[in-house]
């Protein structure tokens, strides 16, 4: 009797497993890859392009980059339009997300002078993609602010909202006839906290106590202006959609205690709620607990007013609801504790304001980037959490990926493990009713990984940065990703023949 029961259970388990293996991505679900201008384009001063904040930092302060490298040439995508699109065709991509270099289009940042050669590069890329039915998704801003605008304060200057609107108008007018998926900003947290409150992204202001919050307010207003511009002047004619991409890590309480749960909520508010809540919640505005906490901490440190600038009633209403979709960049997650944290912070910052600890169990697979581990089913956690919190918006996962060291070369088995797990989690999210329309792997090819330079590789294609031609070679993960795109299922037993990469019929 016992044996029968066991066999029955085993049978049910196997059939559940095989059903799971056969789950398909819907035909209209867009699967693709993502890149960003400064990380791949190179041609930093060619054809009229202006200087941006990464050009400035890497040229004037090279030691902040681990290998003292820069994006002057990067993957040289500016000179490789056809090869880049050929790789998209080899993989069979539905969608390719890339960003525009603001200073390639408007060299000074201001819209009085348009650099047509820069616009032409993007025209050539878009037209080549469309020839092969690859949908472009464009981020207007992925961290490379024109240096001239930085010299005027960048995102600390409230006028950034007007400058960004002017830039967006040029872009929508020039490219909007063919591009239907727009993202205003990539990852406000990394722009504002890392760039204005810390030292890990340009412009490295380290204006810890107040910079992050000033930037957050101005960036949200810039986003809202660009959204209304598209809605009011372009949407009817061009028929596209405009959203924003926020980096959302999964945060789970370390224990079931009330304190750890409260710490987790506060950590979420500080990391991504500060950007998501004003746009996606019904009430709008900054998250309430965070507002209270920053006010308390400001008073504690002798500031006569809170360091989180208030949104006026008019601004709260203006920003609320300004996204047709929620772009989620998701890579990893943490366990959060209220008590087990670094006891003293040397400066006042967003981190000391919230004062919580984060942990990762050693069992989680570690990548070549210290911040990136594989937290099981974290995409599902994040998407279902956001769905419930923000009234079921439409989502795209606009980035998700894995770092290997350069020495790994083409045999990137951990990347395959990561992508298979992530894509199972995506299918779980679709099964749970998340209105998720697409998924983009970071990245199509190796590129300049900000302060890590070329020491961390994220590409499905390896780029040889020692060769002036920057040849691209598919990694094993590229073959696996191609098979998932072709079959629309995840076969965990699939072993690719990596001898030759071909372009399949239809691409
Ligand atoms: C590797 C890519 O990283 C993206 O940025 C972040 C930022 C923060 C996290 N995080 O887990 O906290 C993950 C990824 C970035 O958008 C892209 O350009 C790449 O560098």
Automatic annotation (TrEMBL):
GO terms for molecular function: beta-glucosidase activity. The keyword Glycoprotein applies. GO terms for biological process: carbohydrate metabolic process. Keywords: Glycoprotein, Glycosidase, Hydrolase, Signal. Residues 1-16 form the signal peptide. Gene3D superfamilies: Glycosidases. InterPro entries: GH (IPR017853), Glyco_hydro_1 (IPR001360). Homodimer. Belongs to the glycosyl hydrolase 1 family. This is Myrosinase 1-like. The gene is LOC114241449.
């Amino acid at each position: 009797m016992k044996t029968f029961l066991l066999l029955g259970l085993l049978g049910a388990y196997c059939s559940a497993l095989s059903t799971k293996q056969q789950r398909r991505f819907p035909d209209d679900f867009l699967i693709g890859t993502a890149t960003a201008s400064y990380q791949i384009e190179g041609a930093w001063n060619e054809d009229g392009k202006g200087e941006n904040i990464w050009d400035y930092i890497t040229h004037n302060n090279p030691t902040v980059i681990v290998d003292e490298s820069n994006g002057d040439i990067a993957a040289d995508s500016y000179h490789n339009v056809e090869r880049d699109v050929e790789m998209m065709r080899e993989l069979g991509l539905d969608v390719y997300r890339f960003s525009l270099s603001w200073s390639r289009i408007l060299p000074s940042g201001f819209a009085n002078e348009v650099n047509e050669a820069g616009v032409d590069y993007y025209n050539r890329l878009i037209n080549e993609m469309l020839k092969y039915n690859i949908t472009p998704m464009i981020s207007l801003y992925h961290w490379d602010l024109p240096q001239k605008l930085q010299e005027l304060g960048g995102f600390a200057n409230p006028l950034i909202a007007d400058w960004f609107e002017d830039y967006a108008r040029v872009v929508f007018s020039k490219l909007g006839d063919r591009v239907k998926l727009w993202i205003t900003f990539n990852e406000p947290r990394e722009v504002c906290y890392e760039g204005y409150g810390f030292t890990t992204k340009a412009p490295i202001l380290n204006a810890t106590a107040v910079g992050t919050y000033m930037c957050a307010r101005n960036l949200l207003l810039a986003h809202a202006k660009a959204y209304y511009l598209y809605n009011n002047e372009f949407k009817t004619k061009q028929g596209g959609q405009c959203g924003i991409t926020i980096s959302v890590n999964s945060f789970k309480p370390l224990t079931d205690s009330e304190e750890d749960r409260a710490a987790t909520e506060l950590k979420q508010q500080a990391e991504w709620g500060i950007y998501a809540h004003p746009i996606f919640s019904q009430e709008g505005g900054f998250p309430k607990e965070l507002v209270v906490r920053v006010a308390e901490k400001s008073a504690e440190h002798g500031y006569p007013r809170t360091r989180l600038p208030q949104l006026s009633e008019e601004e709260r209403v203006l920003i609320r609801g300004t996204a047709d979709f929620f772009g989620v960049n998701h890579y990893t997650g943490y366990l959060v504790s209220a008590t087990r944290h670094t006891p003293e912070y040397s400066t006042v910052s967003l981190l000391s304001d919230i004062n919580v600890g984060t942990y990762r169990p050693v069992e989680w697979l570690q990548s070549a980037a210290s911040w990136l581990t594989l937290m099981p089913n974290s995409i599902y956690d994040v998407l279902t959490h956001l769905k419930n919190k923000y009234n079921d918006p439409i989502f795209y996962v606009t980035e998700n990926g894995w770092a290997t060291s350069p020495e790994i070369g083409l045999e990137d088995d951990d990347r395959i493990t990561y992508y298979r797990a992530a894509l199972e989690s995506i299918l779980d999210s679709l099964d749970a009713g998340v209105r998720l329309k697409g998924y983009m792997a970071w990245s199509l090819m190796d590129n300049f990984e900000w302060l890590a330079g070329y020491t961390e590789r994220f590409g499905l294609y390896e780029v040889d940065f020692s060769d002036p031609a920057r040849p691209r070679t598919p990694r094993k993960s590229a073959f696996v990703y191609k098979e998932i795109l072709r079959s629309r299922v995840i076969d965990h037993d699939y072993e690719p023949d990596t001898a030759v990469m071909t372009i399949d019929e239809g691409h």
